Amino acid sequence: MFKWLFLLLLLPLAASGQYFHEIPDCFDQRPPVRYEISDQPGVTYQYMVTGGEIVEQQPDAVIVDWQTSGRLTVTAVNEWDCATQFSLVMQFVPCDQSLIWVPNSFTPNQNGLNDRFTPKGVNIESYQMSIYNRWGEEIYFTRNMDLGWDGRYAGKICRPGVYSYSITYQDHEGYFKTIVGLVTLLR
Questions:
Q1: How far, in whole angstroms, is CA 16 from its chain's centroid?
Q2: What are phi and psi of 85, to 5 degrees?
Q3: Residue 187: how many CA atoms within 13 Å on its side-chain side?
Q4: In whole angstroms, what is the distance from residue 166 CA to residue 187 CA?
């Protein structure tokens, strides 16, 4: 199902972060996964993998063959020996399980990192999400899990603050479930 996964890890030398990747574990043979790394001049990259092995390393990508759940840690070091780390936590999910991961904040500041409130899921048959302001007015709606909310309402940028969401999805067994919660819009 997943032959290649393209993950862009932007590595500013002032911050670090952690990402999550879940793959349905229902195949006897899982192909290696390709992760693209943003190649910046003057920066060297070091990779450490637990739960798998690096099968190929290229200037702008690393290909990992995962045997079990694990972690890929990327360390970037600039010419002044300043370093930062990003981690990708890899988790195998049984094919007979539906999961949704919902972030609790996002920063729609157009820097290319965390600009959309986008829940992720595996083994989801159908999906819809609504975002509400503090007065209960629906300000965003989608049925596409890949779109996410960009922090706008009626074409205007929303104010920083806490917004509520309601997500209704159909799991792999055909049951409908609803998740409600809060998300913080930060600038």
A1: 15
A2: -130, 145
A3: 7
A4: 23
pLDDT tens column, 8-66: 333 333 345 566 666 666 655 667 788 877 777 888 888 899 988 888 888 778 888 88
Which helix H or strand E contains 35, and what residues bound it? strand 33-36
pTM of the full structure: 0.57
CA distance 80 to 146: 39
The residue count for the chain:
187
What the block records as the tokens of 155 is: 């074409």
H helices present in 13-130, as ranges: none
User: Cβ atoms within 10 A of the Cβ of 22, count?
Assistant: 19
Q: What angle do CA 68, 146, 63 make, to 5 degrees?
A: 35
Is 124:95 a contact under the CB 8 Å cutoff?
A: no
